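anyone else get weird line breaks when pasting these?? whatever heres mine. first is seq + tokens for prot A
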Amino acid sequence: MQKTVEQLHYWLIKVPEVFRVMTEAEITQRPAPKKWSKKEVIGHLCDSAIVNLERFLQIQNEASPYVVTTYDQVQWVALQGYQELPIEDILMLWTSINKKIMYVLNHLDEETLAQPCVMNQQQRTLGWLIEEYMQHLAHHIHHQILMNECET
């Protein structure tokens, strides 16, 4: 889990640095209709962090196995109005939630990581869900923030 926490810490430093050197046009431009801007991508990552922090806590607290529910990612981005918010506010939210996730991850033991959950009718574990969160985060950062193409 230490490697996961270190990777998350790296992104919490790197992503704001990347946004600081971008122009407003680069941050807000949508590459095509129904595609997210970089600002909306980081907003989506805020939503993902919020949802996953709750999952990481509930798996430890709810009846086993915890059933992971989904959410309408596209609708959440639209409803939260990330495109209209200052990028500094979005980055502050994303950083704060992920710092809380780091705290939670630092306090998990092997037994807790093995706690079961069900996602898409498949048996998984809390450890698997955490790794899935990190892969999702890295995918969006690599392919949509660090690159020019932004897709929903």
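and prot B, same format (seq, then tokens)
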Amino acid sequence: MRNLVFGVLVFMAPVTAGAQTVSYAVSVPKPTSSLLHVVMDIRGAQGASTDIAMPVWSPGSYNLHWAAKNVQALSVQDGSGRRLEAAMVDTSVWRIKPTAPAMRVSYDVYMGTATVSDVHATIIGTRALMYLVGRAPYPAAGALTVAVDAPTGWTIVTGLDEVRPGVFTAPDYDTLVDAPIEVSPNLEIITFEHEKATYQIVIHARHNYDTSRLRDDVRKIVAEEVRLMGGAPYKRYVFFFHGTNGGSGGLEHLNSTSITFGRYGQDNADAYHRFQFVIAHEFFHLWNVKRIRPEILGPFDYSRPQHTRNLYVSEGMTSYYAALALVRSGVWDRQTFYNDLAANIQELQTQPGHLLTSAEMSSWLTWNRPDDSANVTISYYTKGQILGTLLDLEVRGRTGNRKSLDDVFHQLLAEHGLPKPGFAEDGGFRGAVEKIAAAGGAAGDFSDFFTRHVSGLDELPYGDMLSRAGLTLDVTRAAAVRSIGVTTRTDADRLLVDSVPPSGAGYDAGLMPGDIVLALDDERVMPATFAARLNDRRAGAVVKLLVMRGDRLLTVPVTLQEDRKPTYKIVEDPNAPTAARALRDSWLRPGP
């Protein structure tokens, strides 16, 4: 490991009266322990006591992670090495008494085996770096530094600026903790340039991807989204790709993103399309969320949930622009774009919650989702992506294709882009839509659209909106099958009831989530053949299920229902008017 002498020198330097500084040093003393060791040096703090805290959430991940629970062996010393009292006074807050001119806080934090192991360490600021409570800006005014002491032979990559080897700086705490730091002996780094900015693709995984193809796809996504939004707000951007045996997901940052991908998924078209989509989604967050955001989402309060009804805009419409960028850039063809939209419509329309929870309420509930969420909620990603599509077509239709949702986001960036305050929680986004539509000559407002489809529960007008672009939504029904009206999953060769939608056969019979289905009409159930056995019977027949519920064995009679699952497909209407075809081409082709 590198020698952290510079950290000691900073700590022991004289304290200037009135100055307050905070710096950090992070090391990975034993990677297989999944622990990071953190030193936080505080100089110039005032008052009888000093409170420090760990964030309870991470921007972009709208749930509480309570990172403080993973802090171990916390201790505090003053500049002379004298131990100071540090006691936990709240779920995520420690109080240091008395305050000294110079204080060193040391602690370990458990990050989990997926984050810190013998092959890599990801330093996630909101889960590792504490801040001073009650300081504005916090944890201190002015630039912050973090020194990373990597194991010998390990490479350090981050979006932060490096001021000297292993030492990185940020202008404020929000920027510091929004930049993951990847440390590993096995990183594959691919670099390209676009419009005077440097891009790094950093892959931590064995994989089967053609990296030339991957680089070209990323370059096309970057070029289209930078073109759309009028330029890149950085000089360097880092894509961190972490290979897994599962699917793709990601988290956006100010000038980087962390994305997981199925490492052997190149030859699976659906998996690769999903990977491309996540890349485009996380990159577009550079503008939508990181710069354009509801007023509560930055500067951040890390001590509590940050409720907003606008995640359907921040996340869902980011998904819309991800898909749009993929088709405009040529990474996807048009039918792939249509198929993605149709799959989202199918997902939304088959969720019981789409008649119970609005796009706005889904956004609000993300911090505290109902236990029965499968039956009563929806995804603000899914509905927001659909709303973005329909709203774009509505603006284009009302203005004769003179204005679009592109213009709305340009307007939001100009008026509310960081560091300006975010748009108003109530009516801010709608106001931007109406302003652009009016500039394009549209009469009337959008209150009906937002009341019915954003805050309300009315069914979305798919046909009317898609027809503006010469598209039709075809809905076909699959062949009838018999079912017990529940969703199931398999666990260790056992068939478990996963969710019980209301108004179905399983709901009427009294089945419950977690029930283990052991037998059907006195014969053992095997998950692989259960559906076929049900389909051998007629709709309306009563079957006898033996289920285990907790420690009890129950016999539950169920009247079989008939299911004809819908399949949604979007196709181009060969008889569409010339104006509709022109609108479609303008919509799906890149601009000048």
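btw re prot B: The CA atoms of residues 194 and 223 lie 7 Å apart. Residues 211-229 form the longest helix (19 residues).
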